[in-house]
Amino acid sequence: MSRYLLGRLIVATVAITVASLRGVTAATPSPGCGKTPTLITDGSATTPLTLTSNGKTRRFYVKLPDDYDNSHPYRLIFALHALGGTAQQVTTGTGGYLPWYGIPDLAANDTVGAVYVAPDGLNNGWANQGGEDVAFLEAVMETVEQDVCVDRDLRFSTGFSYGAAMSYTLACALGRRIRAVAVLSGSPVISGGCAGAGSGASEPVAYYGQHGISDPVLPVAGGREMRDHFVRTNGCDAGRGPPREPARGSGTHVKTVYDGCDPDYPVVWNAFDGDHTPQPVDRGATTTFSAVETWEFFSQFK
Ligand SMILES: *[C@@H]1O[C@H](CO)[C@@H](O)[C@H](O)[C@H]1NC(C)=O
């Protein structure tokens, strides 16, 4: 074998080894890995924890996986309530929510598993005055990750309405530190959005957007605007014009998976024939597609 070919072979072997090592060690374990938790218990799903952020006492619930294993890095999934709602409603599936937005039921066979976090907004909303809710959610993240084992490459956020606006804002503020968001009928404005979000707003975040075409509360134009921020930031092909949306009265939803995005940062847009709801149901269907689509989007990242 010539020196040249041998050299090429070694380079190729090294590349394959590095690739497979990355496959094995892709997780970025949080400081809570390998430690016995001192703060978070199974009871934290029903009795909120508190921390002080921006001089205010703030509350959050944490749902650990069954058989929590402190040597295994889990996903961290924020589930944010809407205006007038509470984190407790999200945890129990009352007030119009599915429990934790319906994700744990669908994620039963997920090999990665998840730590779910439901924080309370101020005045039952997420106005994020002066960035205080971003700071709070960062503090929650840090507190949780110090105590339990989380994969820092697998942080997610979802929510409906104000909780969607805040998930979008969190993606703008933290950029790649958030793996993906599912923004259900949100707004680019009410929680601050990407305006003034700093350098994070130029970073890609995998993005699932869902919005009713007849939403009278937070108009679909805002949903398209948030989507288009990540279409641009994730390098997707937007050259073919806006994606198809369902006709009014069709009772359906139309899902668009954007082409050309950075493969690590896909964008999906799901427009439905309906108004302001976290759980749209197609005519003739018995269950919402919302949770299924959210989980399908999140679970592709491992
Ligand atoms: C999990 O796997 C079991 C066994 O294959 C299956 O019966 C069940 O439907 C799965 N659950 C979910 C939520 O996918």
Automatic annotation (TrEMBL):
Please report the name of this protein according to its UniProt entry.
feruloyl esterase
Q: For this UniProt entry, which residues form the secretion signal? A: 1-26
Instruction: Provide the E.C. number(s) assigned to this enzyme.
Output: 3.1.1.73
Name the Gene Ontology molecular function terms of this record. Answer: feruloyl esterase activity
Gene Ontology terms: cellular component: extracellular region
Give the primary localization class: secreted
> Where is this protein localized, as stated in its record?
Secreted
Q: Which UniProt keywords apply?
A: Carbohydrate metabolism, Hydrolase, Polysaccharide degradation, Secreted, Signal, Xylan degradation
Supply one GO BP term: xylan catabolic process
Highest taxon in the source lineage: Eukaryota
State the reactions this protein catalyses. Answer: feruloyl-polysaccharide + H2O = ferulate + polysaccharide
Q: Does the keyword Glycoprotein apply?
A: no
